[in-house]
Amino acid sequence: MIITTTQKIIKIGDSAGVTIPAKELRRAGLKPGDEVVFSIKSVPAQVEVLDEYVVFKMRYGETLKNLATR
C-alpha cells in the first residue's frame, strides 16, 4: 500500500522526524515498531501558494474589496 501525505519535519531531541497520521496507520494496518520503506520529496509549497495568491489577488482583489464593504 502507498500512503501519500504531506507532513512537516519536527524536531525530536537532536534529530528530526515526520509523523504518520493515525488514520493512515490504521488504513495501512501499521503499528509502532513496524518497518516501512519511504521516499522523500521536498515540497516547495510556500512558493506555489504565494504565486497562486498573487494571481488570485490580481484577478479578484477589487471584487473582494467591494464585497467586504457591502
What does this structure look like?
With 70 residues, this protein is mostly helical. The protein has one domain (10-68). 44% of the residues lie in helices and 9% in strands. It has a two-stranded antiparallel sheet. A hairpin with a 2-residue loop joins strand 1 (10-12) and strand 2. The longest helix is centred in the last third of the chain and has 24 residues, at 45-68. The chain is elongated. The termini are far apart. The mean pLDDT is 86.
Helix and strand element order = EEHH
Average pLDDT, rounded to a whole number, is 86
Structural class: mainly alpha
Our Rg estimate from Cα atoms comes to 20 Å
Tally of DSSP helical segments: 2
- Low-pLDDT residue intervals, each spanning 5 or more residues: none
* Tally of discrete structural domains: 1
Largest sheet, spatial ordering of strands: 1-2
Report the sheet-strand fraction. Answer: 5-15%
Helix content: 40-55%
Largest sheet descriptor: 2 strands, antiparallel
Global outline: elongated
**Number of separate strands:** 2
- From the N-terminal CA to the C-terminal CA, the straight-line distance is 51 Å
How would you summarize what this structure contains?
This protein is mainly alpha-helical. It has helices at 22-28, 45-68; strands spanning 10-12, 15-17.
Labels describing this entry:
mainly alpha, elongated, 9% strand
Secondary-structure topology with pairs:
Layout: E1 10-12, E2 15-17, H1 22-28, H2 45-68
Antiparallel strand pairs: 1-2
